[in-house]
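@here heads up, posting the sequence + SMILES for the zinc ion run so it's all in one place. Ping me if the SMILES looks off, I pulled it from an old spreadsheet.
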Amino acid sequence: MATKKTRFEGTFHGGLAGKCFMARFRMSEMSEQAKYERFMREAILEALKGDVSKTSPNPLVGSVIVESGVVVARGFFESDGGPHAERKALADLGRTPLPGAALYVTLEPCSTHGRTGACSEAIVKAGILEVVVGTLDPTPAHRGAGLHTLREAGVSVVADVLVAECEAINPGFAGRET
Ligand SMILES: [Zn+2]
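bot reply: prediction finished. Complex structure tokens:
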């Protein structure tokens, strides 16, 4: 560490080299949580493209797929009975995700075979190995079940990212029908 300090001493307080060094330093310091929140905000923006009069009684949900720090696919729940946000994001990607691809979704992926099939299983089948979730499904029978399906299949799951913001997308929402 001491040698490194000496090496950067000359440019640290000014000049392009110093700035580049600082930029790299900040990137590596950006916490995982900050990364999750940044892309969850993208998923929230997707959710808000929906129109609750068309999705009712189901909630607005948004999803993005991130590869190497870039959003490469997006999807939102558009109409009751239609494909869920996660499926739309997978369809938008239209190919096998790269290793390390992460799917972000504002609401826990569904676990039951409703009219459109379980999204948690579709995510596993697609080969996504990391899922970042905003809020859990408030429906008592479904709460945590989607995450369980994902974890059982070996998917790394991060939950409770921007919970309040994700809940605010669907005020008063107490549970969904698939
Ligand atoms: Zn679903």
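MO: The domain at 31-168 is CATH 3.40.140.10 (Cytidine Deaminase; domain 2).
MO: One more: The radius of gyration is 19 Å.
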